[in-house]
């Protein structure tokens, strides 16, 4: 069909169907719930009387509104006009059937298939099959029945026969006789259930028809004999998976979409089946869902033709993605480029403003323009539908070009089904088509591309079929057929012995239209039937199979052999199995003759695993992708990295392990890892891709650094205590900067550290904290914040008073390290600045001790930044130079440490106890509490254990004892027996140590008088963005607690990965600063999102509290959506599905994130959990899916019942709930349906709803009992056993539910309760009598009783319309006389009357008005005033016209007023009785009069006549130089005389007289001659008139003038010039209404004039100053 490449929108698929009116699928139930539309809208039709050319446009087969009317066909013409309900328009009193889901044009006839013949809400019976003239839309034949079945699809098989697909098999259709024939055997529905074995899409290729059977698979039917040849892709051979739909691609291949199961939930698999229509071999092509490509949905439960189609121009197939919606809603369209083996996204509806989505079948490809016709809608309940034409030039993140958008002319629930394109062209034999071919010994087969022989401009060549005519003898010699888009001619015999010339007559059929030609085949001696394998080269995965077949003589068989069985094996039937990666050759040898054929087989290796499947970069960024699995075998394999678009991605480095690439510009591209065989580089074993999206780089321009309160300290310095922390915040500008990562910098890292905004004081000193962002060469640094810290050391002590050292330790070269403790704790940075001295006074008489040998290094300062301040003592048993033994001396040696810091000295002492005996004792305090609370005067007895060899005797002899020491005796003292006594409030440390220095322990004593009873967090719930820090605070109660401080515990979270490891990296400081880490280049950072519990305790440990911190994503999650795979609110799952691991929840519903780009959606670990409200009905399990964001939750039904599942997000405590109904089909019950899914009933009128229970058709009688319930008994009750409904509450809504006694299946009806009818009991009028004059009218009002009567319609009549008429109660007097006006009720016929008398009477005038009260009139011109006498029916309406000053104005008897001289006067209109008058003030002006000038010292008042239609005046001031006037200044004044630019006098300009404009011009030179030119301008800036003052002189003594307070810019057009006022220095843009900039220039003066070259039209003048818009105005160029 040759048609214009329209920019129109095409229609779409209704997606749902029914089985009879008594069995509704869930979609139909939802449609019956839709809000009502006005009947005027619902039944509207357009172009009722207009002739339509149906060959120029596109048909839309529409289901229309189910439950209200039959289906229809809408038509969109090439000029963009709609013809709605075209079938009804062209065929009055005829309608289509219910739920028309399929239409096709074949042989000039339009075949429309409906599921039933009549919609439940329709009044006219339509048809299941309508045969229509495609050019006129006139119906030719209608069929209300198709056997015993509902209609589904139609296929034209040849010019005489068609196939009708139904819910119960395929029926033959005689095209010539227009009759429905028999059902093709083997295609029927044997399941006994409507939605179990339907026929779907059908395609003819060559001599076969392929038809999708819901239960059986892909039927292969002989198109000539109409018999079932075989069935392929059977569910039982593919793990129970079925088929959704099929499509024919340009290369003649059939592509089939799979279903997860056979019942029609819409769930799909990430693959497509590739079917060779000649050999019937099948290959699996995987859909790369990891790269964002979505599966192909299907729709068996409410069958439609599916959104799966192909291009006729390119070898590509398209489909609407499954996405997160159900099978009838999608947001994206995808493409598979067959020749390039590439998948990509073509269009994303989420990027179109208005939240549009694709609906149902949704789209088809125009066979002429190759554009996508897309149907958009907002949501199921929204009747706003729109059609769009979209080019197929989209790729990745770039959407296809929208060529046009057209909404439907009227609002309606159209439920679009299928676009159908007119078939305007016929097949034609091509000029280069061969007339003769030769088959000889060298050429045993002729393959001619079919497009070189025959072509149809609006049909796919692959769909053209062939019928040949040869003699019976010749039919035994050669075959002529179409195979894989080629005309194939070959001998039949193995060897031709006699040369023969064979005439062949060819008839080609393209979509029911035929063309014929003749061909001569010369069969030479020595030729023979070819022997080839159906594929010359194939690829198969390891462990998978592919079937090869041979093409040879009829019935010819072959033996099969593999050259390398280690790579691939082949069975005797040609089934090839991949064994390991590599390439080999499969050889087929004919068993009938000595010929062979080969096929190259490549076994694909397993794919590489990259560390990222996709990545987003900004321009200029680089990225490294690594291989993490599926390593390259360097011995036999080679790896190369490629960029799919080198203009977008540049590879900068690569090796067999990784690739580094750089983003050059915005766009989408791929990095491809390609593994080839080293033996044959052309053999690609596998490819793995990483999708890359490059976004525009928006650089950081400014960073603002503030305190946590948002303040900038400026020059003020923030003071810190040592180890103190504070939060700083950095705000990046602009807010949409691409990369907001910043680097925190401390100018003095010895004093301050900074990380993620938390500043920590670690030493003395000052620093400046700044934040920096560096992106390429661009570096931006924030304002600095000054910080300082001064550390004050209070005291030092040794960690224990005595340290023991034994002879055994010396023999083993052992060491001890007495350690110094500083108060307060000293950071390591400060320790490095201290002067540390040690005094270790070893006795001089220990002459042979290594301690007195300076060469032995037996003791030394061991202090360092990592080890703290400590002293090391390490004795040796002998001198390492002389090998002489040292003497070990016993005794106590004091060790003293002196620290000098900040000019002060601090000392501490301990004892080193050297002893012969081993230190083998063990010491332990039995008091377990590390912190003990005491009140003043209270005591605590320390208890201990001291064990070791001979220890008891040591204690008795006091050789070894336990001693005690207090850090502060004023707070807590301790005696020699370990009795602690509290003295005063404070904290003291009690140290217990063994006298030999072997062991020591400490206990902290808190002395106080008031302990904590409660800890209250400042905020119970805190929310913080990922990567930010927040200050938590808590208060200790009571207020007078001795220890009011708190201690914070590490935040905890219960979120785990699938492998069980805890995620979430939050921390909290001693000061209560909570923080999480964030880096944009760290994918796992988003795992830190979640809920954290933070415990806080009082310092004394007596009380605690808790708060919750929610860490939110950079784009916080607001809500979760749970979208069913069907359309019911409830989800049903049967107990028979109780498999051990359960069924993944994604089979039933999808979890969506709101907004869709929420940061949490990118998390690599569990993002939400699913729990069951009742685990006895439904359990939730988990399934290992790896540590990815694909949650592995499964549903495990346990018993019949109803429960709810709760989906809880990891972020922000977001939850969503879904109802789950567990059914049990083991009882033989399959479901229940109601006769209505929505009803409006009257209160007080009981009713019942019919129902049907569907059972297994096995001859067994089942209990079909149902129970009833109402969701709101206050609205309507229902008897549980009988189902009798009693409506109660008017205006209420409830859901009536029927539940099967066995199986728990359910059906619902939404019930709306309205008031019952109230009857009329009477009517009365507000007046019983009425008197009117002719022409006078009065309103009568009728009151119906009772007030709440249902029908208040009435009719009005006058018994004598010559006297008075009445319409809707309005009575109008006509002529003198009397009549009766009567009102009658429609309900009951009650009447009331009013006697109307019409009398002629004098009606005096009560007033008069003029159409104008004031007017300006140019001298010498006239206007007409109109007078109105009140009332309108006054008897005498004569008007007398007068002038108050006849020298100024004259007025005639008709109200025409003429201006005579300048001045002001009144026009007076007077009623004929002289009692009433009206006045209009007329100001006469003379625009030609010379302006008057009142000159002052340095100013002048210019007075001139107002000009009609003048919007403003331009005043040009000329100053005389000698006798020559020179333009000095220019002003613009409004029509009141106010100057809106220039200078203005402090004195207001006086008005000279009425009708004049007075403009006060200031800033004049004294004693100077001037004149002024006044130009009157209209709204568009065009000149109306010009006047010039006489020259005038200013006075000699100037007075002060002031600058105008507000100079306003302006723009206007005059004399083809653009005039800009007060815009000097701005850049001016002249933009037309299409957004195109037509001129750019710089404004050079305050009164700028620029000649215009633009065409006439409306333009926007925009002035930009300092890179911001300063002024904008619309102007018109004429």
Index terms:
1678 residues, mainly beta, five-stranded antiparallel beta sheet, five-stranded mixed beta sheet, extended, Invasin/intimin_cell_adhesion
Structure, described:
With 1678 residues, the protein is an all-beta fold. 2% of the residues lie in helices and 48% in strands. It has 6 helices and 143 strands. It has a 5-stranded antiparallel β-sheet, with no helix packed on it. This is DUF5074 domain-containing protein. It holds the Pfam family DUF5074.
Q: Rg to the nearest angstrom? A: 49 Å
Q: What is the global morphology?
A: extended
Number of strands: 143
Largest sheet: 5 strands, antiparallel
Class of secondary structure makeup: mainly beta
**Which whole number gives the mean pLDDT?**
84
Helix percentage range: under 10%
Low-pLDDT residue spans: 1-23, 35-48, 949-957, 1057-1063, 1542-1553, 1598-1606
Strand arrangement within the widest β-sheet reads: 22-25-26-27-28
Topology:
Layout lengths: L25 H7 L6 H4 L14 E6 L9 E6 L4 E2 L2 H5 L7 E9 L2 E8 L12 E5 L5 E5 L7 E6 L4 E6 L2 E6 L4 E5 L15 E7 L2 E6 L3 E6 L4 E6 L9 E7 L5 E6 L11 E5 L6 E5 L21 E3 L5 E5 L8 E2 L1 E6 L4 E7 L8 E9 L6 E6 L7 E6 L11 E6 L8 E5 L7 E2 L6 E4 L6 E4 L4 E2 L9 E5 L8 E6 L2 E6 L8 E11 L2 E11 L8 E2 L3 E5 L3 E3 L2 E2 L6 E5 L5 E3 L4 E4 L3 E9 L5 E9 L4 E2 L3 E5 L3 E8 L7 E7 L5 E7 L2 E6 L3 E11 L6 E12 L6 E6 L9 E4 L4 E9 L9 E4 L5 E4 L2 E4 L3 E11 L2 E4 L3 E5 L5 E4 L3 E5 H5 L3 E2 L3 E4 L4 H4 L3 E6 L18 E3 L9 E4 L16 E11 L2 E12 L6 E4 L5 E4 ...
Parallel strand pairs: 31-38, 40-47, 49-55, 57-64, 66-73, 75-82, 84-91, 93-100, 102-108, 110-117, 119-126
Antiparallel strand pairs: 1-2, 1-29, 2-3, 4-5, 5-6, 6-7, 8-9, 9-10, 10-11, 12-13, 13-14, 14-15, 16-17, 17-18, 18-19, 20-21, 21-23, 22-25, 23-24, 25-26, 26-27, 27-28, 30-33, 32-36, 34-37, 35-36, 37-38, 39-42, 41-45, 43-46, 44-45, 46-47, 48-50, 50-53, 51-54, 52-53, 54-55, 56-58, 58-61, 59-62, ...
């Amino acid at each position: 069909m040759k048609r214009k490449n329209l920019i129109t929108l095409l229609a779409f698929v209704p997606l749902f169907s029914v089985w009879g009116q008594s069995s509704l699928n869930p979609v139909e139930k939802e449609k019956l719930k839709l809000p009502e539309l006005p009947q005027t809208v619902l039944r509207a039709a357009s172009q009722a009387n207009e002739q339509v050319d149906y060959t120029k446009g596109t048909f839309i087969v529409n289901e229309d509104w189910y439950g209200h009317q039959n289906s229809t066909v809408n038509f969109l013409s090439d000029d963009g006009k709609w013809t709605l309900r075209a079938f009804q328009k062209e065929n009055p009193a005829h309608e289509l059937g219910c739920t028309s889901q399929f239409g096709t044009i074949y042989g000039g006839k339009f075949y429309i298939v409906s599921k039933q013949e009549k919609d439940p809400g329709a009044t006219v019976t339509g048809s299941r099959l309508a045969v229509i003239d495609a050019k006129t839309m006139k119906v030719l034949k209608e069929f209300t029945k198709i056997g015993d079945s509902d209609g589904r699809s139609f296929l034209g098989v040849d010019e005489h026969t068609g196939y009708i697909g139904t819910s119960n098999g395929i029926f033959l259709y005689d095209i010539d006789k227009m009759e429905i024939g028999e059902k093709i055997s083997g295609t029927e529905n044997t399941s006994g259930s409507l939605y179990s074995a339907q026929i779907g899409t059908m395609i003819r290729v060559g001599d076969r028809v392929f038809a999708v059977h819901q239960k059986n698979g892909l039927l292969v039917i002989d198109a000539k004999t109409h018999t079932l040849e075989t069935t392929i892709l059977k569910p039982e051979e593919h793990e129970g998976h079925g088929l959704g739909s099929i499509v024919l691609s340009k290369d003649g291949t059939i592509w089939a979409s799979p279903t997860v199961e056979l019942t029609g939930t819409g769930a799909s698999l990430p693959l497509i089946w590739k079917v060779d229509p000649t050999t019937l071999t099948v290959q699996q092509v995987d859909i790369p869902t990891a790269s964002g490509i979505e599966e192909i949905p299907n729709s068996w439960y409410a069958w439609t033709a599916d959104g799966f189609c192909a291009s006729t121009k390119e070898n590509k197939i398209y489909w609407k993605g499954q996405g997160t919606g159900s099978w009838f809603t999608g947001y994206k369209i995808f493409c598979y480029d067959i020749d390039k083996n590439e998948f990509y996204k073509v269009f994303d509806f989420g990027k179109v403003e208005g939240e549009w989505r694709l609906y149902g079948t949704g789209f088809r490809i125009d066979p002429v323009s190759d554009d996508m016709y897309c149907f958009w809608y907002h949501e199921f309940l929204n009747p706003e539908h729109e059609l769009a034409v979209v080019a197929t030039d989209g790729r990745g993140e770039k959407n296809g070009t929208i060529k046009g958008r057209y909404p439907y002319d009227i609002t309606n629930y159209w439920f679009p089904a299928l676009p159908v394109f007119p078939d305007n062209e016929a097949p034609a034999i091509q000029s280069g088509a061969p007339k003769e071919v030769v088959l000889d010994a060298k050429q045993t087969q002729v393959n001619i591309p079919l497009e070189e022989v025959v072509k149809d401009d609006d049909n796919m060549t692959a769909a053209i079929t062939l019928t040949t005519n040869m003699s019976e003898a010749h039919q035994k010699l050669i075959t002529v057929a179409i195979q894989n888009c080629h005309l194939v001619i070959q001998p039949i015999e193995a060897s031709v012995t006699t040369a023969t010339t064979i005439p062949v007559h060819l008839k080609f059929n393209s979509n029911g239209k035929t063309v014929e030609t003749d061909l001569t085949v010369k069969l030479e001696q020595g030729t023979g039937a070819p022997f080839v394998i159906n594929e010359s080269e194939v690829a198969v995965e390891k462990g998978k199979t592919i079937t090869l077949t041979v093409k040879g003589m009829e019935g010819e068989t072959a033996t099969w052999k593999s050259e390398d069985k280690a790579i691939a094996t082949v069975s005797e039937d040609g089934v090839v199995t991949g064994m390991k990666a590599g390439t080999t050759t499969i050889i087929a040898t004919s068993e009938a003759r000595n010929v062979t054929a080969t096929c190259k087989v490549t076994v694909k290796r397993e794919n590489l695993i990259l560390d990222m499947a996709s990545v987003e970069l900004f321009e200029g960024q680089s990225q490294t992708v690594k291989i993490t699995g599926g390593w390259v075998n360097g011995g036999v394999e080679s790896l190369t990295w490629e960029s799919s678009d080198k203009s977008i991605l540049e590879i900068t480095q690569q090796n067999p392990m990784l690739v580094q690439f750089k983003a050059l510009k915005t766009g989408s591209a791929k990095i491809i890892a390609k593994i080839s065989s080293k033996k044959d580089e052309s053999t690609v074993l596998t490819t793995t891709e990483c999708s890359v999206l490059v976004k525009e780089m928006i650089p950081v321009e400014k960073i603002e650094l503030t305190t946590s309160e948002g303040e900038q300290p400026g020059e003020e310095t923030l003071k810190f205590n040592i180890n103190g922390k504070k939060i700083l915040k950095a705000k990046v500008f602009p807010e949409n900067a691409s990369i907001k990562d910043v680097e925190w910098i401390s100018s003095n890292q010895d004093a301050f550290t900074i990380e993620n905004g938390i500043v920590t004081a670690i030493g003395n000193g000052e620093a400046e904290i700044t934040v920096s962002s560096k992106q390429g060469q661009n570096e931006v640094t924030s304002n600095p914040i000054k910080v300082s810290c001064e550390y004050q050391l209070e005291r030092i002590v040794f960690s224990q008073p005595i340290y023991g050292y034994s002879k055994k330790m010396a023999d083993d070269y052992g060491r001890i390290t007495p350690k110094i403790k500083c108060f307060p704790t000293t950071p390591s940075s400060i320790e490095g600045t201290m002067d540390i001295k040690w005094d270790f006074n070893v006795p001089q008489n220990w002459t042979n001790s290594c301690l007195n040998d300076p060469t032995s290094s037996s003791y030394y300062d061991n202090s360092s930044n990592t080890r703290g301040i400590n002293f090391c003592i390490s004795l040796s048993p002998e001198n390492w130079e002389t090998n002489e033994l040292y003497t070990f001396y016993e005794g106590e040696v004091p060790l003293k440490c002196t620290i000098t810091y900040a000019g002060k000295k601090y000392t501490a002492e301990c004892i080193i106890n050297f002893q012969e005996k081993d230190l083998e004792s063990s010491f332990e305090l039995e008091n377990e509490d590390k912190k003990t609370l005491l009140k003043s005067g209270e005591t605590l007895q320390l208890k201990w254990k001291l064990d070791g060899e001979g220890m008891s005797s040591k204690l008795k002899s006091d050789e070894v004892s336990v001693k005690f020491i207090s850090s502060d005796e004023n707070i807590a003292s301790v005696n020699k027996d370990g009795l602690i006594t509290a003295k005063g409030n404070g904290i003291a440390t009690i140290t217990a140590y063994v006298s030999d220095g072997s062991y020591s322990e400490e206990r902290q004593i808190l002395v106080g008088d008031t302990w904590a009873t409660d800890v209250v967090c400042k905020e119970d719930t805190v929310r913080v963005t990922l990567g930010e820090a927040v200050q938590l605070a808590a208060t200790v109660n009571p207020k007078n607690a001795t220890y009011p401080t708190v201690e914070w515990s590490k935040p905890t979270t219960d979120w785990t990965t699938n492998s069980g490891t805890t995620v979430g990296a939050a921390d909290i400081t001693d000061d209560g600063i909570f923080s999480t880490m964030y880096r944009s280049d760290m994918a796992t950072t988003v795992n830190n999102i979640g809920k954290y519990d933070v415990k806080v305790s009082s310092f004394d440990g007596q009380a605690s509290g808790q708060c919750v911190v929610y860490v939110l994503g950079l784009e916080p999650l607001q809500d979760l959506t749970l979208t069913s795979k069907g359309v019911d609110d409830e989800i049903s799952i049967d107990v028979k599905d109780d498999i051990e691991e359960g069924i993944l929840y994604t089979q039933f519903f999808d979890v969506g994130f709101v907004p869709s780009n929420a940061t949490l959606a990118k998390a690599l670990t569990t993002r939400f959990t699913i729990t069951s409200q009742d685990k006895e009905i439904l359990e939730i399990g988990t399934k290992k899916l790896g540590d990815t964001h694909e949650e592995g939750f499964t549903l495990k039904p346990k018993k019949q019942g109803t429960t709810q599942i709760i989906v809880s997000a990891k972020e922000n405590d977001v939850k969503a709930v879904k109802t789950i109904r567990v059914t049990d089909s083991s009882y033989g019950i399959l479901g229940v349906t109601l006769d209505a899914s929505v009803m409006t009933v009257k209160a007080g009128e009981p009713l019942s709803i019919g129902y049907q229970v569907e059972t297994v058709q096995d001859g067994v009688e089942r209990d079909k009992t149902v129970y009833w319930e109402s969701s709101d008994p206050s609205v309507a009750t229902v008897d549980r056993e009988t189902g009798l409904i009693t409506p109660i509450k008017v205006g209420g809504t409830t859901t009536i539910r029927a539940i099967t006694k066995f199986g728990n299946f359910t059906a619902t009806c939404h019930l709306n309760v309205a008031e019952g009818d109230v009857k009329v009991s009477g009517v009365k009028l507000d007046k019983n009598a009425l008197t009117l004059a002719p022409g006078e009218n009065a309103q009568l009002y009728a009151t119906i009783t009772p007030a709440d009567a249902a029908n208040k319609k009435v009719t009005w009549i006058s018994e004598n319309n010559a006297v008075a008429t009445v319409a809707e109660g309005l009575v109008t007097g006509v002529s003198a006389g009397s009549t009766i006006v009567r009102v009658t009720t429609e309900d009951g016929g009650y009447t009331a009357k009013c006697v109307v008398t019409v009398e002629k009477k004098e009606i005096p005038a009560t007033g008069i008005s003029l159409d104008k009260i004031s007017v300006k009139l140019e001298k010498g011109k006239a206007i007409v005033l109109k007078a109105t006498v009140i009332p309108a029916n006054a008897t005498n309406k004569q008007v007398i016209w007068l002038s108050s000053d006849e020298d100024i104005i004259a007025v005639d008897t008709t109200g025409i007023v003429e201006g005579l001289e300048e001045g002001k006067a009144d026009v007076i209109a007077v009623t004929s009785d002289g009692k009433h008058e009206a006045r209009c003030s007329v100001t006469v002006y003379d625009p030609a009069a010379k302006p008057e000038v009142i000159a002052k010292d340095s100013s002048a008042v210019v007075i001139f006549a107002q000009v009609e239609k003048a919007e403003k005046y331009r005043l040009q001031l000329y100053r005389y130089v000698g006798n020559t006037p020179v333009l000095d200044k220019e002003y613009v004044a409004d029509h009141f005389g106010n100057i809106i630019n220039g200078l203005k006098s402090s004195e207001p300009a006086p008005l000279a007289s009425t009708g004049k404009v007075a403009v006060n011009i200031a800033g004049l030179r004294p004693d100077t001659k001037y004149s002024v030119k006044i130009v009157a301008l209209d709204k568009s800036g065009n000149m109306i008139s010009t006047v010039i003052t006489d020259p005038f002189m200013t006075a000699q003594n100037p007075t002060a003038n002031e600058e105008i307070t507000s100079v306003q810019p302006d723009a206007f057009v005059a004399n083809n010039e653009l005039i800009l006022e007060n815009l000097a220095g701005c850049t001016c843009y002249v933009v037309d209404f299409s957004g195109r900039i037509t001129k750019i220039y710089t404004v050079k003066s305050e009164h700028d004039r620029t000649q215009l070259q633009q065409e006439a039209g409306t333009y926007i003048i925009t002035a930009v100053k300092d890179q911001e818009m300063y002024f904008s105005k619309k102007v018109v160029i004429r």
